[in-house]
Design brief:
The protein is mainly α. It has a single domain, classed as Amino acid/polyamine transporter I, CATH 1.20.1740.10. 65% of the residues lie in helices and 0% in strands. Helix 3 packs across helix 15 and helix 4 runs antiparallel to helix 5.
């Protein structure tokens, strides 16, 4: 989930940056989008969604796909209108020009990366213990494994990891293979007369809420599995003919992942009762065990671990580089932009994001972390859906994709609804998201106060100063993070 922002200051005409090399054709872009969406969400939270609605677990995934598709049309209009590396922060800044709003959008994206990586750490620990056949109450052991995993991620992050499209193809193949195994096991079990296909139409409203409320709450959580498509807009400058390629490939990629998720959900509840599926953090492992007892479960557990480990690494890379970029542009305290002398990696930002991840792993459970990720990104998506309408007054000199006006309007309304308590969202999601955003605002306030102190001193020094000081980014220029790795 990487984001970069447009800068409020205009560089000299003679210093125009060189364009990135356009190497991605339609096939590679499609694999990038599919691989970006696949990950921790469906592997870890299918059981939690089933606990909300019962056997009709496929319906929240379908609803989440619909909301994602509506928002994707807004991203498509913006990326084909402004075919450069950017993201939600760049679009919101261009539409509204409010620096603090741009900062909040950027920090929300960063925070969603932290919650996503933390949920991946918990899923990794749960699957590792299952692969090692550790029985009994292993809460402390799982916590220790999750924290140790995050330390390993931070060490890799400090060393520096070069991401490439070819590597993404390999990772996508591994992640996809695990989901295809679940679908295949489910289909074989149904053919052999195993399981109970009738569960897919059953709703569990034993919690006292109606079917609509249960589906809304489950959709708010299932949306975590659909995020990632928005990251592809950062590849616009490296895509051949992005104006023509992006609309087809993003819509196809979303549809492919949506179909896979629905089939996985149907296979899951067919083979495992929803109540049992909702227990623990390894729902798909239970499905494979129930439908194919002879299948090497250790292999599937390692496939799951590989998928969630990749999600954690890419999200932590994104989060640390995003903090580094904001610090470099003086929107956050300066120490966050310090680099290791030899590795040239942002070690202070990496340490800071790792410590925040430790707190999240110890404080919130997997469901809350996934819910917080979807909450933060739903707020960002609501802003993007409004921004695309505002930017209709900014014509460009080339043809581009244009979403029917009703789609971003409906998308914005649905994103806002799913982000509010009206959807049945758990209160812990707001608590975790609130603390994270409060930390961000606190860091921004420190820089803002420092700017004012510096400006006061310069005014006292008289007209001999050189103009704005090094802290003016918190209330002046827009932070411009480097292009960061994507989820």
């Amino acid at each position: 989930m990487s984001q970069s922002m447009g800068n409020a200051t205009t560089p000299p005409e003679t210093a125009a940056p060189a364009e990135l090399k356009r190497v991605m054709g339609p096939g590679l872009l499609l694999l990038f989008i599919v691989g970006d969406i696949l990950g921790t969400g469906v592997y870890a939270l299918t059981g939690s969604v089933a606990a909300e609605v019962g056997g009709a677990v496929w319906l929240p995934f379908l609803c989440a796909f619909t909301v994602a598709l509506l928002t994707a049309t807004s991203y498509l209009e913006l990326v084909t209108k402004y075919p450069r590396a950017g993201g939600a922060a760049a679009y919101s800044h261009r539409a509204f020009g409010i620096h603090f709003l741009t900062f909040l959008v950027t920090f929300a994206v960063m925070a969603s990366g932290l919650t996503s990586a933390s949920s991946a750490s918990k899923a990794f620990a749960a699957n590792l213990l299952s692969a090692l056949d550790v029985d009994g109450d292993h809460g402390r052991v799982a916590l220790t494994v999750a924290l140790a995993f995050m330390v390993l991620i931070s060490l890799v992050n400090l060393r520096g990891v070069g991401e490439s499209v070819k590597a993404n193809v390999v990772l996508t193949a591994v992640e996809l293979s695990g989901l295809l195994i679940v679908i295949g096991v489910g289909a074989w079990a149904v053919i052999e007369g195993q399981g109970d296909f009738g569960r897919v139409t059953e709703f569990d409203t034993s919690g006292g809420e109606g079917a609509f409320g249960a589906v809304s709450a489950a959709t708010a959580l299932a949306f975590f599995a659909m995020v990632g498509f928005e990251d592809s807009v950062n590849m616009a400058e490296e895509t051949k003919d992005p104006v023509r390629t992006f609309p087809r490939m993003m819509l196809v990629g979303l549809c492919v992942t949506g179909v896979i998720y629905i089939l996985v959900a149907v296979a899951s509840v067919t083979l495992v009762a929803p109540a049992e599926l909702g227990e623990g953090d390894t729902p798909l492992l239970k499905v494979v065990q129930a439908g194919a007892p002879g299948f090497p479960l250790d292999l599937f557990a390692w496939i799951t671990m590989f998928a969630v480990a990749n999600s954690a690494l890419i999200n932590m890379l994104m989060a640390s580089r995003l903090l580094y970029g904001m610090s470099r542009e003086r929107a956050l305290p300066g120490p966050l932009s310090r680099l290791l002398p030899r590795r040239r990696t942002p070690w202070v930002a990496i340490v800071f994001t790792t410590l925040l991840a430790f707190l999240l792993i110890g404080y919130a459970d997997l469901t809350a972390l996934g819910g917080t990720t979807s909450l933060l990104l739903l707020c960002v998506f609501a802003i993007v859906n409004v921004a695309v309408l505002v930017l209709r007054r900014d014509p460009v000199g080339h043809r581009h994709f244009r979403a029917p006006t009703a789609l971003p309007v409906i998308g914005a309304v649905l994103c806002v609804y799913l982000a509010t308590p009206l959807s049945g969202r758990a209160g812990e999601d707001y608590e975790v998201a609130g603390w994270l955003m409060l930390i961000g605002v606190g860091l921004w306030a420190c820089v803002w106060v420092g700017n004012r102190v510096l400006a006061g001193r310069r005014r006292q020094d008289g007209p001999g100063d050189d103009g704005p000081g090094p802290g003016d980014g918190a209330g002046g220029p827009t932070p411009t993070p480097e292009a960061a790795p994507t989820r």
